[in-house]
Structures are given as structure tokens and as C-alpha cells.
What we know:
- By secondary structure, the protein is mainly α.
- Among the domains are: 62-131, no CATH class; 142-178; 193-286, no CATH class.
- The protein has ten helices and four strands.
- The radius of gyration is 48 Å and the shape is rod-shaped.
Amino acid sequence: MKVQSNECTGKQTEPGRPCGPCKKLLKNSVIEGIEHRNRHGFSKSTPFQWLTLAEATELLHQKNAQINQLKLSSLNLARSLLSRASHLDAHKRFLMAVGEGNVKGIHRLVSVSRKAGESIYTILDKCNRAVHNLYHPKSYQEQEFQQLFLLHKLGGVAVAEIAHRAFGMPSIEATRQRINTQPLIASPKMPTDSEMIQNLEHAFPHDQAPATRKGGFQLMADELKLETRMRWDSRTNNILGICREHGRRYGLEFRSMAQANALRDGIRDENVHLANEVCRSYSLISSRLTYKPQRLQF
């Protein structure tokens, strides 16, 4: 394209250079706009009637690409909102399941599922199976073992089984494997040195004693109430519950019903009495290493 000024003189100032009026045309805003459009293309705000067929086709492709991108963005946003809504609904169902309280050991179920990286839908499925007794999480805590051990010792096997079935607590076998205890030895008469040493070994093992401890220890008890009845100790095969003041006159090792009948007659004749308390005052000072009693007071 060639442009020429209306005031063109036709005289060149220099060879190959335009005249002065034609040279000023290069600074005209219309000419500058034409050159910018030739270098950088048309502006997006250009009306359609001023576009060529190729430029209109290119603008149409750009609009179609923009529309497709907006459609995909809206589709992804709708899918994301639908997924979030379904997750919120699942969490509401989970809250309702927890609020009903029908799931035994819900904290163990959630803890196991979180460690496995499971979704809320898997947790809900496990809750549903737990309600129908088809799923039982086994990740018990130390506190639950201690609670079942206490129930077993206080209420016996029946109470422990009820707690295991009704409240989802550990079984008796698992608790016995986890908590291994040794019962104290009950003395039918005056406690002997061997009995006291064994009880101290059970209560204060050597491996649990502080290494820096050099002295002994003192254990005090005063008027511990007992049920006034005779009991049979299956571990030592002795009859317990007899007062120590007069119990030395009788044989307390159960070998036949003769010992029990003799104690019955002695209680009836008031030659021996049923013990109503453990002791009035009991003090023991013992070495940490040997546990040999040095003083006994009753």
C-alpha cells in the first residue's frame, strides 16, 4: 500500500526519500493505526464489518474455544459440588449413626478406618455391619483392657462376658494375655516370712524397683472390714475367715469335712471366732533386695 499527501511537491529532499508533506504522513494517527494492525493483527473491539473473512474466522475460533473452556469449567465445578454434597450427606448420616449409639466401639472403628485411609462411605458401611454384629474392630486400648479386668475381678466371668457382648469390650482371653497378674497369698493364720516375701515379690518386683533406692518401705493398714464368713482358698487349699487369735488351735488346711465341722462347732461354742477385719495396725519395713520382714505389729 502506498500513500501520498495531497500537498506532495514531487521533490525529494534526498535520493530515495519522500518529500516533506509525504514524510509527515507517517506520524498521522490513522497511518499509525494501519501499521499497528498490519504488524499485530486486528483489535478484539473492532466491529465485524471492518474485519476480513480470515479475521472473522479466526475470531470465531477464539470465541468457540472460550465457550468450550467455560463449559468444561462449569462441568468440573458441578461435578465437584455434587461430590462435596454427597460427602456432606455421608457425614450427616455418620453423625446420625453416632448419635443413635447403636455402634459398639465406634472410636475403635473410626481409628482403624483412619489409619487405613478409608473414605466416609467405607466407614458408614462398617458402621452398618457393626450394628448387625457382622464387623467387630479389634484395636483395643489399654484402658479398655483395664476396665474389663476390673469387671472380671469384681463381677466374675459372667459380668465380663456381658461387657464383652453388650459394650464391645475385649474378651476375657485377650485380657488375660494382655494383663498377667499374680494374686496375693492370703494367710489363714499368722503370716509367715515366706508368705510375706512372696507377696512383696508380686507387688514390688526387682526389675520395677528404682535403682537408686537403698532404703525400705512402710505399708500401713488399719481396720479393714471383712465379711464374717468362712472362705476356701483354692490356691492354698486353706480355710480363711477365722480369727488369728484362736485359729492356731485348729487345722485350717481343708482335707475333708472334718476340718470344716470342727470349725463350725468351735464357732458355735465360741472357742474360735469369724474374723471381722484384716488387722488393727499393720506395719512392715523390708529391704528392697531381700524383702525380709523386720517388724510386724498386730
